[in-house]
Amino acid sequence: MYYILGVALGLLNFIELGAFGLGEIFFILALFLFSYEKKIDKNEKYKMPVEILKIMLYIIFLCGYFVWSSVNNTYVLKAIFKWFTILIEVYYIYKSMKKNKIKTLELLISFLLFSKLADYHDFTSPYALHYFFLIPVFCLLYVKNNKNKDKFLLLIVCAIYLGFGKSRSALVLLIAFVGFEWGNKILLDLKSEDVNRKVISLLCVFAFLVCIFVAYNYVEKNVSSSTESNDERRVLIEIAIKEFKEHPFLGVGPINFNDYAQNKLGYRLRNTLLTPHNLYLEILSENGIMGFLLFFNIIMVVFKSFKNKNIKLPIHFCSIYIIVYYLFATFTGTNRIGFSILYAVVLYYYYNDEAKEIKYEKDIYNNTSI
């Protein structure tokens, strides 16, 4: 039932209400209801994990632009508001996971997978329906059932869309799929004392990176209907690099990428909402090295969570998917809810399952020592 609710709310994001999609508003309301407690046990101490406060550090950093930068204050306020709402979403996601783990997990994953269609803003386009609706169906089957047949179906569908449809989304999913399947094994091999295993793992990583480069170039050069889009993306990446070079330490200011490109660098972009289509470059160009380090501090919780041997399939798969996805997209519109989901859910598993596992191992050690 909650998988279906998540799909419905994801599709409702097609309707925009200012900075939010309609689906996102109902999504936050659902989380509030899941996390609501009529009676709070006074003996139970509810403590928000320190990791969530890393988002607050980033917000404090953005507030600093009021003091140390000449950036338009309107841009600063927008950026602070954007991240503050993320903090609220993370808070309720975390509380909801503590109270109704299974319901919340089902809702989060399906909402994440189907919110992408809303970003395309067109239900009638075959491109949108294929790439942002059909593929998520196979993703949902995979993470819901965790069966080999669903895994191979997802792999085949993505390969078809990449080969014949030249789909960036299919490429992102294939990268995430391979990363999920082989990531932990590669890491273990690299830590091994066996030299042969290390060499083979390094060769696999190198081959994987080469395949990504070749596949991305294939997509870029063969989408005849999107040549203008591809050229524009290359220009936006060029702008992001130039902005970072001019202001490497603090960047050009929050949500100031487009304004700086047109008014300072002299570029003529088709509208004032364009971003680099790469979250990491966007953070570097707008917030510099300082902001990027604070942002990367948030991302690190994802990698920490992978140490947990009991991490669930939907979490692991979607975590890698989001990290890869932001190589091709930025933190605007309904995209931001994807990051909130990723961070809070992974955070929950890291701080609960991992903590329980460590406590269990310590108890065993203490008992055997006695």
Describe the protein in words.
This protein has helices at residues 2-12, 22-35, 53-63, 65-68, 73-99, 101-120, 126-145, 148-164, 168-191, 195-222, 227-246, 257-263, 279-305, 313-325, 335-369, and strands at residues 16-17, 20-21. The chain has 370 residues and is mainly alpha-helical. Strands 1-2 form a two-stranded antiparallel ribbon. Strand 1 and strand 2 (20-21) form a beta hairpin. Helix 6 (101-120) runs antiparallel to helix 7, helix 7 (126-145) runs antiparallel to helix 8 (148-164) and helix 8 packs across helix 9. The radius of gyration is 21 Å and the shape is globular. The protein starts with a helix and ends with a helix.
Summarize this structure briefly.
With 370 residues, this protein is an all-alpha fold. The protein is built from 15 helices and two strands. A two-stranded antiparallel sheet has the order 1-2.
List the SSEs and their pairings.
Elements: H1 2-12, E1 16-17, E2 20-21, H2 22-35, H3 53-63, H4 65-68, H5 73-99, H6 101-120, H7 126-145, H8 148-164, H9 168-191, H10 195-222, H11 227-246, H12 257-263, H13 279-305, H14 313-325, H15 335-369
Antiparallel strand pairs: 1-2
Helix pairs in contact: 1-2, 1-6, 2-5, 2-6, 3-5, 3-13, 5-6, 5-15, 6-7, 6-15, 7-8, 8-9, 9-10, 9-14, 11-13, 13-15, 14-15
Rg estimate, integer Å: 21 Å
Strand order of the biggest β-sheet: 1-2
**How large is the count of helical segments?**
15
DSSP summary, beta strand count = 2
**Strand portion:** under 5%
Mean of residue pLDDT?
A: 76
Determine the N-to-C terminus distance: 49 Å
- The sequence of SSEs as H and E is HEEHHHHHHHHHHHHHH
Q: What is the helical fraction, as a range of percent?
A: over 70%
Q: How does the helix and strand content classify structurally?
A: mainly alpha
Query: What's the shape?
Result: globular
Uncertain ranges: none
Main sheet overview: 2 strands, antiparallel
